[in-house]
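Table S4 entry, Integrin beta.
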Amino acid sequence: MPSYSGKLFLLLWLLMLTLAAAITIDEQCMHSIDSCDRCLSTHLNCAWCTDKKYQVRSRCLSRATLLNFNCSEANIYENQPQLEVLQQKPLKDYESSDEHSVQVKPQRVFLKLVKGNTQRLKLSYRGALNNPLDLYVLMDLTWTMRDDKDTLEQLGEQLTKTLRNLTNNYRLGFGSFADKPAMPMIMPQLRDNPCAAERESCEPTYGYRHQLQLTEDIKAFTNAVRNSKITGNLDNLEGGLDALMQVMVCPQQIGWKQQARKVVILVTDGFMHFAGDGRLAGIAERNDRQCHLNEAGEYTGSLVYDYPSLEQIYRELLRRKINVIFAVTEEVFLTYKEMSGLMQEISNVEILSADSSNILELIKKSYESFIKRTQFGDNSPEFIKMEYYTDCAGQFPNLRPRNYCNNVNLGKEVEFYVDITLTDYPKNGSLYHKIRVEETSLNEYMDIEVELQRPCPCVEEPQPDDEYGRFQCDEQGYLNCGMCVCDEGWTGTFCNCPTDPSNATTNEALLRTCRLPLDSLGSSLSHLVCSNHGECDCGSCKCDTGHTGEFCECLECFDCDEERAECHCGQCVCKYGWSGTRCNCAESTEGCIGPTGEI
């Protein structure tokens, strides 16, 4: 059991730690005396006093300390971050009565951001049961896919059963594609019957044909598949990306529902043409990502615009919140797998059997994969940093830095924590911004209304003749918002530095000379003035007790014996013949030799 003196020592030690912790904020704040802006950006808890009767040298301290030093409470400016939830409807499954579900909460938040300070928001997501599904079947109808068309045509009742097991609210649409009807994608002499080489008759080659708008009528879907015509082209490269682009950018013609999960299943046994391939046919104009379907559903831009790039496809899938399933044969699977890997959050690739008999299984597997995955993104400007953390509903023991989760069962609530930091002020000076955090595949989002705290909110009427204000500025300026506004010919924090040709002409220029260079050329400087261990006096650092160096970057040496060592930036460097942490050990062995000469 410790003695009374031991307990007393322990108590004093804890008290010293408490006091040290209490003054840490003031130590960080006290040297930011040149401006209110720098004071408030030094630490979240730094406050600035504008009281003209305030008599302490540093106007930048914690709020409590300023009050203790008799700064009027009405004249204290401080950082005031805010977080207020404006709208938070509870999560709910899809209901046909209002055709609506709520899968993200909160829906609206107000944030007041302070530069350098991070605020954390909690975002909750739960996938809704019976959420609508819009499934558009986009099928390659070139000659080698004729048996796949026959299979799809016969799946009506089975398709209904499969979709009802996924959701009670589904709609189907159908479209087909081949390729651009131009050389070298087709042979000119086979333009009217591209299947003549197979001694068969088929439809002239077309780029893309929208056959059926999204509908709940399964019979209409089956009839649309039955009435579609097989066509052909010359090579095993198809115009599927042309078709996929039109399916995305023609929402009215396709009939996409905003609330639904939108899925395109692209069925093919061939490879794809990409941007640039159109030049082979003399088509050089870049794909314009606009809708070009006529009343009959024909793509009229096939011979006008080049194929889209994969980047264009990816951007539109994200923007339109559409998922794509590439159902492809084994021969081309690896190519599509690489392509899907570049946009994995919104695509999937599955191996299609030779006659497409497993297409229902692929739809079920891919849809379940989509609904078990959630991912969030945002449109934050470059000066606001957004970082996401989650444990994916207990999949991990601790929060991990990620904005997505996989394998989340439908109905399971997932929490994301979003850390939001103002890293700088925008160049245009705008203080009000809107940020949307949205689920990448659904029309579900949280809107954040952001206000940036002004660098310093103080505004005062100038009083250049105020006697006490001039006294605090060395009679060479006057006090405004607690900062000295210097007369012509003077600068510095307290207007005590002349602006002669050999000196800096602004206080900021003086402060630059008191910042530690971070490279040998001096092109990069520390943001700390005098390493935050001293004050900048007319371009030179005056260091606090215990610190030294041109920029107060070094600790003083207290244990170095000047006869045995030299102090270099807080380190004792021993002179020849001495060693040890305090250079108090002689390297000579003369004092250890006995009368007989033995050590």
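Confidence is low (pLDDT under 50) at residues 1-22.
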